[in-house]
Amino acid sequence: MGDREELLSKLDERIKFGNELIAQLNDVQDIDGVPKLQRKIRQEVEFLKKLKTSGKVKWEHLSCSNLRHFEAMVECSRRPGVIAVSKVFHLDDSTKLLVDIVSDGGKSWTKVIARNPKSLSALSSGNASYGARSILDQAVDYVDGIEESLANKLKARGVVVKGEILPDFKHDLSFDDSSDANYNAAPLFASENASSGKE
User: Fold this and answer.
1) What are the pLDDT digits (tens) for 17-35?
2) Could you report how far apart the first and last alpha carbons of the chain are, in Å?
3) Sheet bearing 108-113, strands edge to edge
4) Domain extents for the chain?
């Protein structure tokens, strides 16, 4: 298979995958924000279809697709106790806060992060771009697919780590976050108590 045929085949896979994500949300339609999430995924699928029709598709289009993030959002949306998805809270007259997942009767707010576990570990050890905050500085609670050494660092800071603890990868200083190599499709997300803010 030539490079162009492989690219078009991958594009078809992404389009199919996006449609599958939309369908997975059908049984949780009653959750606030799920129809909006479906519309966003549908827009991404339509964009990919237009690329295919135009014949101007590039590998970069596939690697920059939002479907990885949407996959994590769908996974989290389908978990028990979720009451809202992509919920906007008005903290005051001029400040809004977008919360990816609201659960536990509104007590838990979740930020969804879809990252390669290898990249998360690299970020925790300071191998991030200039000015980026360490994942340890940002984390409160991570779920699904985290390397053991990072999980231990988070636990030492009082973070509750849920989900699968993966063995550490052998790290080199270069890593590719856009690569599907070693990618755990399950989402990684941070959760904070929703102790302030009003709807």
Assistant:
1) 999 999 999 999 999 999 9
2) 53
3) 82-90, 96-103, 108-113, 188-193
4) 1-80
